[in-house]
Amino acid sequence: MESHLHPPHQSIVILDFGSQYTQLIARRVRELKVFSVVLPCTASLEEIRKHSPIGVILSGGPSSVYDADAPKFDDRVLAMGMPILGVCYGFQLIVYKLGGSVKPAPRREYGHAEVNLVAGAKSRLFAGLPETLQVWMSHGDDAEKIPPGFDLIANTANAPAAIQDEARKIWAIQFHSEVHHTPRGKELLRNFVMEICGARGDWTAQQFIEETVRAVRATVGEKGRAICALSGGVDSAVAAVLVHKAIGDRLTCVFVNNGVLRKNEFEKVQQNLRDKLGLHLIAVDASASFLGRLEGVTDPEQKRKIIGNTFIEVFDVEAERIWKNEGEVEWLVQGTLYPDVIESVSVRGPSQTIKTHHNVGGLPESMKLKLIEPLRNLFKDEVRRIGRDLGMPEEILQRQPFPGPGLAVRILGEVTPERVRLLQEADDIVVSEIKAAGLYTQVWQSFAVLLPVMSVGVMGDQRTYANACAIRAVHSEDGMTADWVPLPHELLRKISSRIVSEVRGINRVVYDITSKPPGTIEWE
Q1: What distance, in Å, lies between the first and last C-alpha atoms of the chain?
Q2: What positions carry a catalytic annotation?
């Protein structure tokens, strides 16, 4: 069902042992213009070698190496003969597997800590760094005895903090170099990736475009046809332009009105994609079908599954129409991103599934069309970079992320035409006022959420009993973590005043100040 488009090239493989920071390691490596890929810790040597790694990083994780259900790991990875860096749990795993010992720490070390380089110790990993480093720790076990052949190169006041075995090309650190709480951590990772692994640092947006275009052409063939699921957002638009660059008019884009789009979105998206991108677009109004199937459904996972399944049914119908007019269609293009995959499928070691994304876990197993997902390994900011290199207009590239299931996951409880109308009106006010304040491109996402809560109010000296609405605005780098935005009070006052005055059926507005984690960006 899934098409892997990218041929092997120089990369850093990151084995995930369940750390909340694993994706940050991948990002830090990519910031060095080196491709990185996250694989489950259970990945076979064959799978790892498919990615042409020049180095391997073992991530952190919540387990102890002595746990009965500790993540499985192929010991032969440590003998691959290429540079290996263990981080936190990866550090402890290296110690444990290679003849050292690990013990429970007297107290869990979590937060800021100070690491000191061992006097006289020489290490390429710490080249150019000061003798004392401020770092971020998050672990419950310590290395009691380092393995034979290893040198201690740094420690804290309590325990070893970094070790190395140059002969076997293995390094390990007890702290998290990938987080911003370790100020010089990027330099340490650069030392590993560029100096120790010898990365060229030539993975660029242009290289990605060229590789993807070649791969799509090879995948689809000289006569193959594809349809693209367009949502009107950045991801699907960039995916469409990429595939269009590869196969031209053999791509037909399909934009579906699922009944839970933003206000006037169906008309605006058609104009943008046809006029500004020159894409061949078929617009399908299937709102009645979607809303009919969502009737009475309140569970968010069920909503996502229904929307995903209905999307595919619509695409199958459109594909058959295109077959009759233009020739057989085999492929479906989607703008799936890395965070969608990470949050939807528990394939990253022991990481837990957070929620199903309609374009990943919501697809039926018996799909007629085969998938092409050219952006599947990219983060949002990388997608925008690709779009700029493709010459796409900023108006499209700067659009804030919008969930595939649309307003259905911003309407808590049952999705009805009336509740959709209420949220469309409230959300339009939020977006328009944030744009008017010049803040739209400065925040990751800003939107309204309709709550399954009725509250008493007073309007025009009369009692009201109406819906409550929440406002959400967050800063994020890639959607994996997020902080709430302290919007100016006057802006919040204006948004609230307009919603309760203009949207008949909402009489209360609240502001969501929850970060991710512990919350998610969307409420469902």
Answers
A1: 26
A2: 88, 176, 178
